[in-house]
């Protein structure tokens, strides 16, 4: 008689144990060369950049670079295997052991290196050292982001294999396997671009536009409707207060107190009477098109008799309609209020969003505004109309320059231009920089010996490399570009992925560390992050040009008898109030 014994009851691990086991097995499924590439890219990404950054941004660039490094390392390993190079299990085990040891040394060293150069740069900028938790936040965020990007990449690889199998079943009888795989890769890449552009990007822009249009209906603290008829949004204005937008209301209600005008006038010997400056503006909701909005600005210039002023500046705003207060204040103080400034809103989106997703609207708005003002201005007698200037900062500089086909066009149709923090993708700026005189640096070019166009680079120490270094005798009208060597907005370019910029092969700006180096791919992502932190830099660095408008306006639009000592006075008074972007 056979006795049946009950089957042994197997012990089933708990859920927590199974999760821990899965995590323990997961690293073994990763490519060793891929991990080596991730380590190399991670450590290099922590090297010197243009600006110090918070742990969040540093972790982001490190995570992105680590994911790219993993992909390149895994690709290299695949190429080596396809070439028939032997790679045993024993060699793989030793490779991972060496890699682990290298990681234990390289990661702490890279974090220390990162902390060192960031503190050095913060000291150069006059800022305190980084928080003590900075390295831990960087490592954690970089690891999380790299893993997420790796999983996305693996997901796309699975989709590609599935599509390849499907294509193979349909076309395999007539098409070789390598061709079906190539077709699968192309299809997945195309579908990814379509989904990202058509759904993620466009849908995201539409959603953000809705959110920011709601925010645009608000009013900044302390801003009240002006009762001065010389301001748009006043009771007499045809540009309604409620239609100006958040930044428009701030602009027309802003300006310096009378005491500042009186101080500049007294210290510079101005004898002409002071006047109340004219500020006209139109919000995006005021018209059905950019041309209609621009025509409303012209109507406001007519209403305020702006054509009777000595100076008229057409300022293209940034994404949300922001006009840098220091740009307006500097010009108005320079001329004792005998000025008119015209601007308009063309988007609800912040500049960084427009920078990434909408580069067509700023140039269209800049052209619409300038052409509308220029047409009306041209109708006035030549000896009885104001001096006409074009200006803009950041995305506004990009938009403003789009109204002109060349520097000769600028000279023919204006009395000068001041363009600050110009994005590197601006066509006119790029052409002039590329045509600079041999031997002049990219950060402060010299063009035709500085006859018409000059560049200024004024870091916090007050030095000025080219604006006046070429002498006081240069032609009018004048064009001035103001840009910092540490401004990522100016120096960002897709070319950084594979091409070393001239500015890192030439003498550096005084606010760029000598240890800053170009590294393929990594420098591109570092500079991309610099776009987001450039505006938070202190005055004289990054994308903060607070006190430098005094020099720019004094160079292109000086009143009669104005001197360099007067410019120093103007710079001092402008610096009494910090600009808020």
From TrEMBL:
Residues 278-568 form the Alpha/beta-hydrolase catalytic domain. Keywords: Membrane, Transmembrane, Transmembrane helix. The keyword Ubl conjugation does not apply. It comes from the Bacteria. The chain crosses the membrane at residues 30-50, 56-80, 94-113, 133-153, 174-196. Residues 46-255 form the Alpha/beta-hydrolase N-terminal domain. Residues 223-242 are annotated as: Disordered. InterPro entries: Alpha/beta-hydrolase_catalytic (IPR027787), Alpha/beta-hydrolase_N_dom (IPR027788). This is Membrane protein.
């Amino acid at each position: 008689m056979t006795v049946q014994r009950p089957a042994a009851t197997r012990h089933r691990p708990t859920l927590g144990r199974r999760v821990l086991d899965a995590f323990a097995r997961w690293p073994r499924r990763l490519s060793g060369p891929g991990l080596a590439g991730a380590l190399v890219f991670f450590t290099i990404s922590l090297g010197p950049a243009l600006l110090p950054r918070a742990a969040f941004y540093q972790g982001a660039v490190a995570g992105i670079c680590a994911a790219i490094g993993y992909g390149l390392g895994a690709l290299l390993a695949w190429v080596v295997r396809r070439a028939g190079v032997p790679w045993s299990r024993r060699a793989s085990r030793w490779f991972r052991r060496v890699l682990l040891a290298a990681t234990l040394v390289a990661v702490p060293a890279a974090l220390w290196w990162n902390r060192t150069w960031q503190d050095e740069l913060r000291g150069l900028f006059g800022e305190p050292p980084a928080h003590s938790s900075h390295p831990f936040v960087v490592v954690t965020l970089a690891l999380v982001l790299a893993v997420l990007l790796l999983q996305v990449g693996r997901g796309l690889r699975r989709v590609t294999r599935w599509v390849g199998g499907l294509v193979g079943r349909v076309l395999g009888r007539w098409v070789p396997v390598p061709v079906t795989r190539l077709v699968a890769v192309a299809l997945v890449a195309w579908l990814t671009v379509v989904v990202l552009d058509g759904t993620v990007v466009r849908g995201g822009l539409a959603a953000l536009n809705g959110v920011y249009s709601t925010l645009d209906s608000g009013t900044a603290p302390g801003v009240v409707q002006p009762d001065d008829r010389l301001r748009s949004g006043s009771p007499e204005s045809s540009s309604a207060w409620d239609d100006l937008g958040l930044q428009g209301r701030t602009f027309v209600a802003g300006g310096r107190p009378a005491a500042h005008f009186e101080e500049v006038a007294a210290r510079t010997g101005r004898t002409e009477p002071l006047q109340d400056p004219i500020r006209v503006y139109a919000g995006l909701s005021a018209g059905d098109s950019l041309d209609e909005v621009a025509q409303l600005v012209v109507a406001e210039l007519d209403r305020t008799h702006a054509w009777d002023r000595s100076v008229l500046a057409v300022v293209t705003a940034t994404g949300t309609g922001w006009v840098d207060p220091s740009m307006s204040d500097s010009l108005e103080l320079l001329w004792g209020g005998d000025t008119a400034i015209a601007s308009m809103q063309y988007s609800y989106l912040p500049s960084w969003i427009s920078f990434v997703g909408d580069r067509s609207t700023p140039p269209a708005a800049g052209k619409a505004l300038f052409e509308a003002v220029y047409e009306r201005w041209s109708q006035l007698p030549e000896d009885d109309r104001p001096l006409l200037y074009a200006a803009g900062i950041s995305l506004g500089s990009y938009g403003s320059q789009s109204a002109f086909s060349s520097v000769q066009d600028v000279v023919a149709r204006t009395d000068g231009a001041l363009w600050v923090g110009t994005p590197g993708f601006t066509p006119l700026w790029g052409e002039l920089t590329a045509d600079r005189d041999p031997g002049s640096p990219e950060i402060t070019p010299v063009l035709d010996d500085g006859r018409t166009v000059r560049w200024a680079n004024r870091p916090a120490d007050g030095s000025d490399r080219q604006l006046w270094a070429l002498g006081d005798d240069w032609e009018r009208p004048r064009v001035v570009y103001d840009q910092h060597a540490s401004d990522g907005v100016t120096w960002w370019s897709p070319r950084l992925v594979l091409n070393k910029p001239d500015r890192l092969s030439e003498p550096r700006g005084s606010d760029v560390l000598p240890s800053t180096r170009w590294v393929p791919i990594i420098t591109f992502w570092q500079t991309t992050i610099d776009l987001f932190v450039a505006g938070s830099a202190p005055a004289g660095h990054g994308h903060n040009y607070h006190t430098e408008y005094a020099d720019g306006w004094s160079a292109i639009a000086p009143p009669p008898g104005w001197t360099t000592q007067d410019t120093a006075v103007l710079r001092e008074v402008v610096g009494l109030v910090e600009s808020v972007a």
